[in-house]
Design brief:
The chain is of the alpha+beta class. The protein has two domains: about 1-205, no CATH class; about 275-415, Heat Shock Protein 90 (2-Layer Sandwich), CATH 3.30.565. Helix content is about 65%, strand content about 10%. It has helices at about 1-25, 35-55, 60-75, 80-105, 110-130, 145-165, 170-235, 235-250, 255-265, 280-295, 315-330, 380-390; strands at about 300-305, 340-345, 350-355, 365, 395-400, 405-415. The chain has a six-stranded mixed beta sheet, covered by helices on one side. The N and C termini lie far apart (about 70 Å).
């Protein structure tokens, strides 16, 4: 009988750990590279809680170790430290509220039955939260200090109230009601997170559209200047033809070449780095490369794509905008200050290569970037967006640092119109 109860208790705790992990992954992005570490941490957490609960049951020691285990598990997921602290506190508050609500409401039941009901209640909580936190983009959100403080304060206060209930001898219906209220508040903070994430995403999209507007405005100025040069050349075309005819009659081929080169230089617009005929690509790249020319010493760009691409302009803005912003920022901090961009479409496959000088990054494959600048919590979020867009087009992205140069290669499967 004892062995059956032990096996049942271990299975119930296993389900509880799986639910806690699922709850974490609704708000922290999971990566394949770190899956083994997360799994190992989850196994250690399961063994720790199983042993302690079998010895001391619901107690100060158990809950302290429970929180340490949840916090430790959270820190194996990628994300800012503020977000991981919030998730650790919110998950622990939810788990503790479920435990104490069951403890006060079913005090006459056995320990195993309480653990089973607690796990069932936690399952209900995860089921309620899951629909509002299933977006992959939510894993990228990074809040400022004030927003993070609010998110951390709410579950922290709930944990404090629950600890007072447990260790000051409260019991009965009143204690159960307070625990249920704290549980509802703990669930509400996840909804609050989702609302703030929606607002954050909206602000980021507005910023992308604002940059796109500036890019189109810049391209309009480039086109206007180019048209002005064409009109000026056309106005003097008769005179140019007469001069060229005269030079050819004299047989002065060298002077003819110099004259034609001067005409070509006159036609060249120094602000028009890219001219593919694709309005979105031309406007965005000319805007970004103009900024790059202002802060870098060497800027190279080679783009060979058709005028029409089956690629949403917003997606292209996210990919090119974030990659070039990161590359320009990194290159500007180095002595070389160099940037190279290559983009081409071949048989429905779009190849994008960005190479820039960098510093402070170890050689090898790079998963995410770090910065020491203000607003570091937001850095790298753009790359997560880029990866998501690349996956949308069934592509692949690889970042490699070698000898002080960062190389980013992207392949996306699209087609011409």
């Amino acid at each position: 009988m004892m062995s059956v109860n032990l096996i049942t208790e271990l299975m119930v705790n296993l389900l509880r750990v799986l639910l806690i992990r699922k709850l974490m992954e609704l708000f922290l992005p999971a990566e394949e590279e770190g899956e083994k570490k997360v799994l190992a941490a989850a196994v250690c957490y399961y063994l720790l809680t199983s042993v302690l609960y079998g010895i001391v049951h619901l107690s100060a020691l158990y809950e302290a170790c429970n929180f340490i285990g949840i916090a430790g598990l959270c820190f194996f997921y990628p994300g800012t430290w503020k977000k991981r602290i919030f998730v650790a506190l919110a998950v622990f508050a939810t788990d503790l509220a479920c435990a104490l609500a069951v403890y006060f409401a079913f005090s006459r039941e056995g320990v195993m039955h309480q653990q089973a009901i607690r796990t069932l209640l936690l399952f209900i909580c995860v089921t309620v939260i899951r629909p509002i936190a299933s977006r992959a983009e939510d894993g990228e959100i990074a809040f400022d200090q004030r927003q993070a403080g609010i998110l951390i304060l709410i579950p922290g206060a709930g944990i404090f109230i629950l600890c007072v209930l447990l260790y000051e001898g409260f019991e009965g219906a009143a204690a159960t009601l307070i625990c249920v209220s704290v549980l509802i508040i703990s669930l509400s903070v996840f909804f609050l997170y989702h609302m703030m994430a929606d607002h954050y995403r909206s602000v980021r999209e507005q910023e992308l559209y604002r940059q796109q507007t500036f890019a189109y405005q810049n391209q309009l100025e480039v086109i206007t200047e180019s048209q002005g040069r064409i009109r000026a050349l056309r106005h003097d075309m008769k005179n140019h033809i007469l001069v060229l005819q005269m030079l050819l009659q004299k047989g002065d081929l060298e002077e003819t070449r110099r004259y034609l080169a001067a005409m070509q230089d006159f036609m060249a617009n120094p602000s028009e780095y890219i001219e593919t005929g694709n309005e979105t690509v031309d406007s965005l790249l000319n805007y970004k490369l103009q900024r790059a020319r202002e802060v870098l010493q060497t800027v190279e760009a080679g783009v060979c794509i058709p005028e029409k691409l089956v690629l949403h302009s917003f997606d292209l803005n996210v990919v090119l905008g974030n990659l070039l912003d990161n590359a320009i920022e990194a290159a500007a901090e180095t002595e070389e200050k160099k940037l190279k961009l290559t983009m081409e479409l071949e048989k429905g496959v779009l190849f994008l290569h960005v190479r820039n000088s960098c510093q402070g990054i170890a050689d090898g494959r790079v998963q995410r970037l770090k910065t020491t600048k203000a607003g570091a919590s937001d850095h790298g979020i753009g790359l997560s967006s880029v990866r998501r867009i690349v996956e949308k087009y069934h592509g692949d992205m690889e970042m490699i640092c070698e000898n002080g140069d960062m190389e980013t290669d992207i392949v996306m499967y699209i087609s011409e119109m």
